[in-house]
Structure formats: structure tokens, C-alpha cells
Amino acid sequence: MKVETLRWNEGRLELIDQRRLPLEFEYVTCQDAVQVALAIRDMVVRGAPAIGCTAAYGVALEARRHADNPRSQFDAALETAFRVLAASRPTAVNLFWAIERMRQCHAQKRNGSTQASATALLELAHQMHDDDIEICRAIGRHGAPLIADGARVMTHCNAGALATAGHGTALGVIRSARDAGKRISVIANETRPYLQGARLTAWEMVQEGIPVTLVTDNMAGHLMQQGRVDVIVVGADRIAVNGDTANKIGTYTVAVLAARHGIPFYVAAPLSTIDLAIADGSAIPIEERDPAEVTGFRGVRWAPEGVDVFNPAFDVTPAELITGLITEKGVIERPDNVKIRALFDQ
Q1: Where a domain ends, among 92, 107, 137?
Q2: CB 244: neighbour CB atoms within 10 A?
Q3: Are 95 and 154 part of one and the same domain?
Q4: Do 181 and 114 sit in the same domain of this protein?
Q5: Residue 1: inside a domain
Q6: Which of 11, 146, 235, 342 measures 20 to 30 Å from 112, CA to CA?
Q7: Same domain, 168 and 233
Q8: Residues 124, 62 within the same domain
Q9: Which domain holds residue 71?
């Protein structure tokens, strides 16, 4: 199955509305940077690599809208687009990586026509989209040998095709292991409170015929204690230079349980998710989301009115709990500052 999380169609950006899965499948259309920023903020699209690609197209859309304007108006419109997109979500560093690449392209084309600038920005967005798919496939190739035939693989949140331009990071490793002929099965943690595991990971695996068992988050430790988990693979939204990793809330708990039970714990992510400007996980910004995500779901409320709510969207797993970091350049065992910096020197 080919999941087109995002696609360019006749001058518009179309995004699978991940808020509606798995009960409904439909695309949302975006025609300017503001609509793209809202789609990122409201979780129409989510997952660090997918957010980066989407933001790039948001810039390209705005450039096309203003391509016939004078250079000063064109530049001002793009500056607004950069600012609006950067404010959409704080944790996934791929968002800011993509915006910076588009900024650099814009700066390089300032001496040419606005039409040429708009064309170059769209071409770069297309390139980032295509590159992300190839990067995910490379991550899958490097990670697949870590998955034994017959392995029961636990994952948390959704780091699949829906979280990228295609194939996925953590689920890309699982797909690649399956494609190599290995008999594997997936344990998908539901991933409260937004249920990305229950709604999205389970959906992707069912679509592809990969055996998947859905469990609630608080069952993970029991399954490990019972010897029913062989390996854990998750994605990431931002990785500090020392290897500390921010991923969906609950990942740290899974990593601690994995260490307690001697189960390998891998993080699969592209180099664009590594933030060389952040020394360790304490500096990673953690998004806090709407309390309504905790007090109920899709119009059904189960918590009493007036209750206080704390709803961080991410937590940080220390590098010492990570068995290996799976990237497009290979697997880094026990990641640290030296090993991670060396990735960028290759």
C-alpha cells in the first residue's frame, strides 16, 4: 500500500486528515501558508518529517501566490509565511530545518525575478518530499537487520508513512524487515491521549497485512515482564547532540521498562531530526496541548468539569537508555556527542 500523506495536486497541497483516521479517509486542501500552519497545529498532519515537508510546501504556496507582486511585497509575504509556519508547533525540529532550507533558497534567488524565486522554492519543496521517502527507505534498510525473524516489535505513537513523506522511520524499519522475508508482528501502544498508535499505527499495519496487536499504554510493562516483546523501535521529534531524544509522551516510560527487562530500544530518525544546537534533552522545548485532549475524545467527555489538566505532548528519553540510533547513514550504537557529530562529517 502506498500512503500519500501529502501530495501536490494542481498547485495545491493535499494532506490526509489524520484526525479522522481510521474511521474516515479524506484529504484536506491547503492553498496558502496560513492554512498549512493551521493543518500542522491542529494535527491534520503530524510526525516530524511530514511536518517538515508540509512546511516547505507552505512556503512554496505563499511564493506562488505572490509571484506577480513587486519584490518588496514578495519578500514581505515570505517573511510572514516563515514566521507563521515556525509558530505552528515547537518540538519537531524538522519544521525549523525545512523553513531554514527554504529561507536559504529564497536568499539565493533574491537577485532574480519573483517568478524564478517561486519556481525554485517549489522545486526545493518537491526535492525535500522525494528525499524524505528515500531517506526513510535507507533507514529501513539499515534497521531491518536488527529485527530477527519472528520478532515481536513494540512501537509507541506513529512513526510510519503517515508521519513522513512515505515508508516511515520506525515503521519503515518494520516494513523493510517484512520485505526482507522476515516473519514479524507488531505491538502498537495506543499512545494516549491522542491515540496515534490505536488510530494510525494499527491502521497502517492492518492495511499492509502485517500482524498487529493493539494494547493500552499501561500494558507495556506487563508484556515485557511476560517475555512477549523482543525489540522496541520508536521515532523521534528532536534529538539533542548527546543522543537524548524527544518523542511522543510515554516513550520515556517504555524505554525505562525496556532497560529493566533487557529489551533493545531503538530510535529511528533522519539526520534532520538531530538538533546540533541543543546539548542535551533538558533544552528541548516540550509542547503542551489542549486539556480537552485528556478530558475526553471526539465530543465524549469522561473527566469532571473544573479538573486541572497537564498535557505535555512529548517526553525526553536519555541517551543511556537508547540501544541504537537508526539513521539514513547507518546505526549508531549507544549514541553520544562524539558519535552523533561524526555522522555529519561523513
Answers
A1: 137
A2: 23
A3: no
A4: no
A5: no
A6: 11
A7: yes
A8: yes
A9: 6-137
Q: Which amino acid type is present at position 268?
A: A
Instruction: Please give the Cα distance from 134 to 143 (Å, whole number).
Output: 14
Three-class SS of the chain: CCCCCEEEECCEEEEECCCCCCCCCCEEEECCHHHHHHHHHCCCCCCHHHHHHHHHHHHHHHHHHCCCCCHHHHHHHHHHHHHHHHCCCCCCHHHHHHHHHHHHHHHHCCCCCHHHHHHHHHHHHHHHHHHHHHHHHHHHHHHHHHCCCCCEEEEECCCCHHHCCCCCCHHHHHHHHHHCCCCCEEEEECCCCCCHHHHHHHHHHHHHCCCEEEECHHHHHHHHHCCCCCEEEECCCEEECCCCEEEECCHHHHHHHHHHHCCCEEEECCHHHEECCCCCHHHCCCCECCCHHHHEECCEECCCCCCCCCCECEEEECHHHCCEEEECCEEEECCCHHHHHHHCCC
Evaluate whether 47 touches 163 at the Cβ level (below 8 Å).
Answer: yes
Residue with cell 524538522: 94
**What is the domain count for the chain?**
2
pLDDT class for 3, splitting at 50, 70, 90? confident
Phi–psi pair at 156, nearest 5 degrees: -125, 135
Query: What CATH number does residue 232 fall under?
Result: 3.40.50.10470
Say yes or no: 147 and 128 in one domain.
no
**Mean pLDDT in residue range 250-279:** 97
pLDDT of residue 329: 96
Q: Which of 119, 137, 155 is the last residue of a domain?
A: 137
Contact 114, 69 (CB under 8 A): yes
The per-residue pLDDT for range 25-80, each reduced to its tens digit, is 999 999 999 999 999 999 999 999 999 999 999 999 999 999 999 999 999 999 99
Q: What is the mean pLDDT of residues 151-176?
A: 96
Residue 135 has pLDDT above 70, yes or no: yes
Q: Which residues are catalytic?
A: 237
| pTM of model > 0.70 | yes
Co-location of 148 and 124 in the same domain: no
